[in-house]
């Protein structure tokens, strides 16, 4: 369950695991594991069943917030959101998520959205590939993290690259992580069940962006951005969710 060691952005230097997660941190996880597992099982019983809505995490105000805060340049273009992976519909598997991500155009922009077991919503913007065959960190300075506030839910904090290091994305088939230097900004295990969020130098977050440092996932979704077929599709967008269709539906709207 613990993350594997990682290498520098050029893949030439090994970073010891204990530089990323200390022994005390791992011990704390074990000590509190039983109680957290019981609570997690209770919360997971409330996971929504598979459905045909494009998202079970984001409502319209939250999506508008992401569009305006993460993608200011893309707002000048007619881009739509396409759901590529949903834990609820596709199963809890990092391999499945990465397989679907690797089928996309490598240069495409992607948004990973996570809901933890306390309903905190957060994630990452990735401008480039997600590839489970990579060894060591990779990515670009356009990568950033975000976290929604609970009141009001559409308020969002974005954590951009600080230029302190180039530890953007780590994905080797056993883990998916963003950020480094003091800890991972986001780390998910290969079952997409357990996660870690710590202060990290890459993005300058001074606290976890999840509800707690060690969290359990309720849902994970991956979106890609693509040119919309229409720039006036918001009239067809229901207030509650983004519309009805299969999991490959494209979300098109004006902001």
UniProtKB/TrEMBL annotation:
Transmembrane segments: none annotated. It comes from the Eukaryota. Its main location: mitochondrion. GO terms for cellular component: mitochondrion. Residues 1-59 are annotated as: Disordered. The keyword Ribosomal protein does not apply. Residues 27-39 have a biased composition (Acidic residues). Residues 56-226 form the TLDc domain. Keywords: Mitochondrion. Residues 1-26 have a biased composition (Low complexity). InterPro entries: TLDc_dom. It is found in: Mitochondrion. Belongs to the OXR1 family. This is Oxidation resistance protein 1. The lineage of its organism: Eukaryota, Sar, Stramenopiles, Ochrophyta, Dictyochophyceae.
